């Protein structure tokens, strides 16, 4: 994973650079739909970034629900906290955790959060492709959550190393050729995979993968 300072610098420009989430919106909404949330749910939002997930998540879980927002970048979390205030999400409904998920200490911090807060819904939002240890990390999360937990991943993917995929990978400090849904496919019930093509001209897909821990 690239140094978090890359994301710290990018954080204030993220919403402008993604055109207010224009390219990811359909896939993001699908991923959140796949979580099967209900009022009062607790959801773990991994790679929360600037908090783009907060609005649709909060609409589903309501004032009695809780968002556990995790990111490795202090700058991204600063923007996320500002967004939560702008959305008027009560501070009792959201917890923020800074954790470098490329390191064992960061993974252990998230696992401890899972054991303490017991979320039954987990969203990986545009971040697994940034991790060299993506399979181990996802497997650790799967091991930590309770049986019946719903998990969903939204991320970018390209079958081929094209100029477009190189560009998207560079912007996100990621590797779009990583098949980061494999741990869910191998270990979850009711696995599903959906493809969106907002970057068709670049030959890059945005996918949503989901499943339930047995």
TrEMBL record:
Occurrences of domain Methyltransferase (ranges): 43-103
Protein name: Class I SAM-dependent methyltransferase
Alphabetically ordered keywords of this record: Methyltransferase, Transferase
Annotated GO biological process: methylation
Species per Swiss-Prot/TrEMBL record: Halomonas elongata (strain ATCC 33173 / DSM 2581 / NBRC 15536 / NCIMB 2198 / 1H9)
Molecular function in Gene Ontology: methyltransferase activity
EC numbers on record: 2.1.1.-
InterPro entries: Methyltransf_25, SAM-dependent_MTases_sf
A Pfam family matched in the record: Methyltransf_25
SUPFAM superfamilies in the record: S-adenosyl-L-methionine-dependent methyltransferases
Keyword Protease attributed: no
């Amino acid at each position: 994973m690239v140094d978090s300072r890359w994301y710290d610098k990018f954080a204030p420009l993220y919403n402008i650079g993604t055109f207010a989430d224009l390219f990811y919106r359909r896939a993001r909404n699908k991923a959140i739909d796949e979580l099967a949330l209900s009022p009062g749910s607790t959801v773990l939002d991994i790679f929360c970034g600037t908090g783009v997930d907060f609005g649709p998540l909060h609409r589903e879980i309501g004032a009695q629900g809780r968002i556990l927002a995790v990111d490795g970048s202090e700058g991204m979390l600063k923007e996320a906290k500002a967004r939560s205030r702008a959305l008027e999400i009560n501070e009792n409904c959201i917890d923020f955790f800074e954790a470098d998920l490329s390191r064992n200490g960061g993974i252990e911090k998230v696992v401890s959060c899972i054991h303490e807060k017991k979320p039954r819904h987990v969203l990986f939002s545009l971040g697994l492709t940034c991790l060299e240890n993506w399979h181990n990390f996802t497997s650790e999360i799967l091991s930590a959550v309770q049986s019946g937990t719903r998990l969903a991943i939204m991320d970018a993917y390209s079958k081929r190393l094209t100029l477009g995929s190189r560009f998207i990978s560079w912007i996100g400090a990621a590797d779009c050729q990583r098949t980061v849904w494999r741990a869910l496919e191998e270990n979850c019930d009711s696995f599903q995979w959906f493809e969106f093509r907002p970057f068709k001209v670049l030959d890059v897909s945005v996918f949503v993968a989901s499943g339930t821990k047995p």
